[in-house]
Design brief:
two-stranded antiparallel ribbon, 7 helices, Rossmann fold, mainly alpha
């Protein structure tokens, strides 16, 4: 990843013509207005404890999922399975001449930016993060950078 890409995408929080913080803020606002009908789950939470997150979802929707069902769901939602399914779907779309986002499912990692950012870029990103969270009324803790 080039330094200019880091500066234009990550430090500005802009990606694919969407301000990522504004996008999150819309969901955060919806969540806050519908606490009884919405469950906030982060990718980082899922990466840390997929079984716990799937269990939390099952409990929230009150579906009575068994441990076996939860285990199968965790396996189905693994990065390897998701990547394989996406690759197959992309091939099918390509054969039909349909558009698709190439490499949408990339690494299945959280925090890969740490391997690319310089110390100064990380400092600027964190300053921008704090500013954008305040601007959009979101708690800093909503995003796990640890």
């Amino acid at each position: 990843m080039s330094g200019s890409h880091v500066n234009t995408v990550f430090l500005s929080f802009e990606s694919h013509s969407v301000c990522m913080r504004r996008w999150h803020a819309g969901w955060w606002e919806t969540y806050g207005a519908n606490l009884d009908r919405c469950l906030w789950i982060s990718f980082d939470d899922y990466k840390i404890d997929p079984h716990g997150v799937i269990s939390k979802i099952a409990k929230f929707i009150d579906c009575g999922a068994s441990e076996e069902c939860i285990a199968r769901t965790v396996e189905s939602a693994s990065f390897g399975n998701m990547r394989a399914n996406a690759d197959q779907t992309d091939k099918e779309k390509a054969m039909r001449g349909e558009k698709f986002k190439k490499n949408h499912i990339r690494q299945g990692l959280s925090g890969a930016w740490r391997k690319v950012f310089t110390g100064e870029q990380e400092k600027v990103m964190m300053e921008q993060h704090e500013m954008r969270c305040k601007e959009f009324g979101m708690p800093l803790e909503l995003f796990n950078f640890n």
